[in-house]
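Predict the 3D structure for this chain.
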Amino acid sequence: MATTLSTIESYMIAEGLKYSLNDDYIRTSFATDLYKDQDGDSSVFIIARIEEDGEYFKLMAPNLYHYPPDGPNTSEVFRILLGVCWRSKLIKYEYDERDGEIRAIVEFPLEDALLSSRQFLRCLNGLVQIIDEYHAAIATAINGAAASLDEAEEVADNIRKADRILRAAGIDKSTRSADPGGIVRFEE
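Done. Predicted structure below.
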């Protein structure tokens, strides 16, 4: 049983996700906490594809970064990108040596299996989370400095802790306004 774009579209609908359907792929985007694209927007756009007559699945975030093929910090950039691949196990980063595009991708063969909703959502959520989590280290390396994956993980972990505290306090991060007094107080 081959997986189709219609299958993935049904998963997106079931989750209430916004997307656009094109001839051979589905495009969606997600807000990010740390990752900023080249225009400074806090979002990442993602493409889902089914290839080889439904036997191969790809989920990619193209054009995340650009780094010139003859850039001065090439070894540090590639050390960080490969380090993320080592630590995450889910995604890999790809580099186009012709134009310097760096993208993140999750891909695997399905052969005769149907891609499940749970598999798709894990790939989708994981891709966005990993891009966001390691953005600081990748951006630092691209900008010419030594970068730390441990520091990037620590920053991302602190943001997730703050989000949990806000949720526990009943505060919706997406709709909250600035605290006029500059202090948020949590009382027991």
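The chain has a mean pLDDT of 89.
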